[in-house]
Amino acid sequence: MGYEHGDEPPSNTSANRNFYEVMEARVGRRGVLMGGLAAMVTGLIGGSISGRPAAAQTRQSLLGFKAVPVSYQDKVVVPEGYRFQVLGVTGTPISGDMPASAPGANTGADQEHQIGQHHDGMHFFPIDGSSSDGFIVVNHEYVEPRFLHAEKPAYKGKPVGTYSVAYDAEGRRDDDEVRMEIAAHGVSVYRAARQADGAWAVVADPRNRRITAGTPVEISGPMRGTSHVQTRFSPDGLRARGTLNNCSHGVTPWNTYLAAEENWAGYFSNTDQIDQKPDLPREHARYGVSTNPKGGRFGWHLAMSEADEFVRFDASAKGASATDDYRNEPNTMGWMVEIDPFNPQAAPIKRTHLGRFAHEGVVFAPAVPGQPVVCYSGDDSRFEYIYRFVSRDAFAPGQTDGSILDHGTLYVARFDDDGGGAWLALAPGENGLTPENGFADLADILVNTRLAADHVGATKMDRPEWGAVDPNSGAVYFTLTNNVRRTPAQVDAANPRAANNFGQIVRWRYSGGDHTAASFAWDLFLIAGDASTSTMANGAALNEDNIFACPDGLWFDAQSRLWIQSDMGDIGPAYDGPLKPFGMNMLLAADPATGEIRRFMTGPWGQECTGVVTTPDGRTMFVNFQHPGAHATSAQFAAGDYGSGFPDYTGAVPRSATVVITKIDGGVIGT
Ligand code: FEO
Ligand code: CA
Ligand code: CA
Predict the structure, then answer these.
(1) CA of 567 to the centre of ligand 3 (A)
(2) How many domains does the chain have?
(3) From the alpha carbon of 263, which atom of ligand 1 is closest?
(4) What distance in Å separates the CA atoms of residue 615 and residue 619, rounded to the nearest whole number?
(5) Do 367 and 434 contact (CB within 8 A), yes or no?
(6) Full-prediction pTM beyond 0.90?
(7) 621 to each of 585, 612, 616, how far by Cα in Å?
């Protein structure tokens, strides 16, 4: 089904309870679940979880725009009084000698200086606090090879499906195609500024750079130098190459960027075993590393030349020891990667104490001088977990840098039946994580983060995606996008909807607002779906102004507006499944204090709306549309119908892009 796209096969075989079993134990009816929990939570931690101050109950809504309708059109729709432009499309030159993207003639070397494909998490780093000049840093989650190579003989006019790549008669791939795909992954850092005519443009700057799935990176934190990450490329285990499947991101309190490595397992192939269980190394098996000789995705290790930069994706044990091959290469993925957008010489750094899993992103609690730094990250796969990291050292503005993330404690969440929850430490000797139980030391725990979380009894969730912290209340919100594998036995019998088709948003708070606390109180902010299957925080169902499903992207603006993005998968005009009532993927805004939600923008065919941020003044918003046209069938592709015209509408292949939104009266976005 379309909305399973972007997720990997489930690989959690532990007996831990999942979120719905917990919910079912707590409540019998959804009305109680939504309304009742607020009261329960109030009793648990004192004060409403919405953080609604008494004065706010009479204040005006944060949402001042007129909702746009559900859309089935191949275009971008914004509210009355707003306008948009397109910026930073795939193939835009940003560095080197600024090679223009020429259809049919673009090379891998060109792509290494051009904006990548499949835009995802993103931040705007202002230059000197400016709201009209700064660096956009944007993740490129994965690629659509048939659109990168559309003019090549092996693709043009051929029935090529999404994800498919061309192999020769010997099962080999063209080197330059692979190089281009590797280069279209990773992160783009480029300067963008508002011009005299009001339009935004890419600006050449020596700090612009591409970080790709092949860029040399440093390994930092507890994994650095351990046997787990020793490879032929780095026998000392200090370095690695590239970052993969960068979904969402985080912004540190010291103004750097963290790119998440989400569904990286499918890029590797380990053919040492034909059956993943039980003999594949657990640090491969628990993450779903493929035993398919072509790997789970693009077969990069099968590039014709057998160059080292390609064969590293073959995780089979081929040499005499780990330093003779790439059996450990998958262990160099699954981390959060720190990038300093203002220092192009600084290598990306894998901050390994934040754990190894399918990181969707990371969100920081507001940093308090003299207190530890705290951040949260979800593992986006079915039945996986939500994690927290608390630093050992205290935050010192102006002095603290990313090395603070190298010492501390990683925790995983348990959601209890009574509206409370607990953070369970994933540290040597804690919660049974001992050598006797199979966890030799901290590095062994971290490289096997999922297994450690299984062991301590974490709660299985429905695909945790983005998190966001309300600047007003301090509450932490996380999207749980869907889980089509949830069995009927796990459904609350009083709720007839297949809730795991549509997803929900969970939130939690701490007594005294202390993000380092061992326990928390939680609630559901939203159960997504259509009018008959949804519930908002105020107890009402979603309506024509806001029905949507599969919440994914999540971001609070400075005024506490919660921006929510849908990822229902590759939905096109011919789609006729359970997600049809919601139309194309969209961006919505919510007022967390009132629970009100309004649809702000809808996008073209096939895309996913992901990545949202504004300039510091809140008057310019950047939003990404990823994989337009991805729903196009192989027959459509062969006929030259690429599914969507976005953004050029010239008959060329569709491209991911950032959309820049402003209010015609120059006001703050959302008001
Ligand atoms: Fe890359 Fe979980 O969305
Ligand atoms: Ca996502
Ligand atoms: Ca998603």
Answers:
(1) 5
(2) 1
(3) 1
(4) 7
(5) no
(6) yes
(7) 17, 7, 10
pLDDT for 5: 47
Q: Which domain holds residue 309?
A: 19-663
The alpha carbon dihedral of 535, 536, 539, 541 has a sign of negative
9 is a domain residue = no
| 10-residue stretch averages of pLDDT, the chain, 671 residues long | 50 63 41 42 47 54 97 98 98 97 93 98 98 98 98 97 96 98 98 97 98 98 98 98 98 98 96 71 94 92 98 96 98 98 98 98 98 98 95 98 98 88 97 98 98 96 96 95 78 40 93 96 90 87 97 98 97 95 98 95 98 98 98 98 98 97 98 97
Evaluate whether 583 touches 77 at the Cβ level (below 8 Å).
no
Q: Tell whether ligand 1 has an atom less than 6 A from the beta carbon of residue 250.
A: no
What is each CA distance from 241 to 255, 309, 347, 667, in whole angstroms?
Answer: 24, 9, 11, 44
Distance 248 CA to ligand 2 centre (A): 6
Prior bond of 647 cis (ω within 30°): yes
Pocket of ligand 1 contains residue 262 by CB under 6 Å = yes
Q: Does any ligand 1 atom lie closer than 6 A to the CB of residue 608?
A: no
The rounded distance, in Å, linking the Cα atoms of 286 and 280 is 9
Q: Is the CB of 141 under 6 A from ligand 1?
A: yes
Which residues have CB less than 5 Å away from ligand 3 (the ion)? 6, 552, 567
d(CA 336, CA 363): 11
Is the bond into 278 cis (omega within 30 degrees of 0)? yes
In a domain, 7, yes or no: no
- Burial per residue of 341-353, b for 16 or more beta-carbon CB atoms within 10 angstroms, e otherwise: beeeeebbbbbbb
Instruction: Determine which residue's CA is closest to atom 1 belonging to ligand 1.
Output: 247
Strands (E), 385-497: 386-394, 408-415, 420-425, 461-462, 464-469, 476-480
| CA neighbor of 628 nearest in space, from 111, 4, 42, 73 | 73
Q: Which residue do the tokens 């831990």 mark? A: 16
CB within 8 Å of 451: residues ≥ 6 apart: 282, 286, 438
Beta bridge partners of 624: 658
In eight-state DSSP terms, residue 446 is: H
Whether residue 603 lies inside any domain: the answer is yes
pLDDT score of 43: 46
Report pLDDT for 39.
Answer: 45
Q: Is the CB of 360 under 6 A from ligand 1?
A: yes
Atom from ligand 1 closest to the CA of residue 567 = 3
Residue 420 burial (CB < 10 Å; 0-12/13-18/19+)? middle
- 97 CA from centroid of ligand 2 (Å): 32
Give the per-residue pLDDT at 2: 35
Question: Is the CB of residue 110 below 6 angstroms from any atom belonging to ligand 1?
Answer: no
| Residue listed under structure tokens 């499944």 | 577
108: CATH: 2.120.10.30
Q: Is the CB of 465 under 6 A from ligand 1?
A: yes
Ligand 1 centroid – CA 380 distance (Å): 6
Task: Note the ligand closest to the C-alpha atom of 381.
Answer: 1
User: Is residue 3 in a domain?
Assistant: no
Specify the ligand 1 atom closest to the Cα of 358: 2
